[in-house]
Design goal:
Length: 53
């Protein structure tokens, strides 16, 4: 049972790390398109909402 707990813990850590990286990358892209390109990306807005939830 402890081995299963350790495996699940590692999987959850990996998924959370991927989600945090997605939030960072998506947020950076949203800021870049809004302020530099003056054309905000609508896809990243929805994507960030789903990743955050």
């Amino acid at each position: 049972m402890k081995k299963l707990d350790k495996i699940l813990d590692n999987v959850m850590r990996f998924l959370m790390a991927v989600a945090m990286f997605a939030l960072l990358a998506g947020g950076t892209w949203q800021i870049f398109t809004r302020w530099i390109l003056r054309n905000p990306s609508t896809v990243t807005d929805e994507f960030l909402r789903y990743v955050l939830i």
